[in-house]
């Protein structure tokens, strides 16, 4: 393919315009064969121009497709036999080609910031055979940039700090703006910086964006924070360029440019003389406008008469000077103290030494107030000793206390019984003499620590405390004994003179020169033929055999009494019995079996066999228990006649009762006279006795024999019935007696009754009772005469 003459002229014009407008033109593509290309019936041709890219402006806003360029082949004679096709990035979707003329157009708005160039391929085909007439050519459509993006501060907003009092030109921070336009084309991406807000304190370098201080001696204590607005504008800041802004918060950091100063030249504080040591007397603080380490101070007492009595330290959180007591105060000895205190910065900046000394002085006067103090003991701790053999009432020692106040009140003594619960000691209330009140035992408690109370006679609320440590001296009052419970064995095959046990002794006493024990056999055991004892002279003894041939069948246990004597004055002794068992031992002399009964056990059963037998027996027992349990569960219930047994069934009827003749619908016992005391209920856990049920009446009428016999029969059946419930069941019988409070209303009963009751009043009750009045009335118009 090559350019036609007309197209070439157009290209030259566009190229000239492009050079004038710094690259704002289009270009056309012609493919040049770098190698000979042969086609049937044709000769090789050679190109004199080489073009491989087009140029298209971005952000084209026209309604018609944007003309990009033209493709043309030397084979194309203009008769329509050649067609052009386009492939590659954006082909058909963004770029289209006229297959007859080779003209390329862009159908969409292009953005260089999204894609800077497109690589496409073009080919000329024979329209009839659809075969290429030239090889496929690759070319690039490059998008020309326009200034359509403003600079942006991607890292904004910014925060920075600079020390106060910094000189002019001190660098604070650098800001950077980014322009998405092409930096290699024109001035669209060339940015300059300026400051819109923050003058005259700060300035910015136009090209680098470095922010610097513009005023000297900026004081943090006057203003510690500044808000700057920085602008970045492209097109080298010319009119028509796009711009963006960001904010920069600059904080002045502190330097030590302010010395500490006390608000007052002198202070005065009153403290009671009873204030404990290490208590805080006062807090003072020197003001410092600086912060952080620059405000850290140290305090010290440089002069005064209280250098050894008081000390001052610094509170790291509040930077206060804390004055505390080092020694106890005594109003009677000294009533006031004067201190000269200095406060100084710990971190001094040499640049600001000209501002003055970074320290200050003040005077503190402390007035001691008199208080009523408790008695004071002559010693904080008294040490006393007493023998554990001391008798009751023995004097151990004396304590003394006095009233430190000017009144010097008499003092009375007592023992704090919380420290002497067993009341081993007493103290004389006036003299302070401590004596024993009980017998002492060093082995129970070797040292007694008691507290003695001293109270003023005039003010018992003032109590002083003294501490007494009483050490109990030891005497030889405990006999020696075995150091442990020995389990001694002797082998059946032991030889004479064989050591079977080494023993030692202990003694609860504590002699000053240590223990010395002596061992021997008692007189009755000295001539035994089995064992002997050898004293090792080192508080131990050795038990040895005197013969061989020990047999468990003859004697399995021997008891050897050993006599132990200590070296105390006077010496004490005790007899301790050593139990020796005869055992069957292996070749190494290690005991295997020590029970004589082992000989009568059957030798044919091992431990595993015994365990197996026990497991079988337990399994059989479990099976028997399961069978018994299952049989009990299969038994029929005691009450098997469900039709007759209605005592545990609740039947609900919602129909209306049948009147007085229906004696089964409700309990007739409710008609009894409630005013008559009922019989005592029977216990449910014993056999119920037969009770006669009678209806109380107001008339002397005998009980109904028929109902009484009926109840007798039912009770007998319940007593002899094996399927009946237990005795705590409830038997309910309803019957109508002849002793109702309301009397019987039956007409039949009224006829045969000899009752002299007068029912004439029924005629006065209205027409509803007329029938009853006619039946029961005695008037001349009575129905029955």
Automatic annotation (TrEMBL):
Residues 1-27 form the signal peptide. It is a single-pass type I membrane protein. The keyword Transmembrane applies. Residues 73-153, 154-262, 263-377, 378-482, 482-599 form the Cadherin domain. One of its GO terms (cellular component) is adherens junction. It is found in: Cell membrane. Cadherins are calcium-dependent cell adhesion proteins. This is Cadherin-7. The gene is LOC108499581.
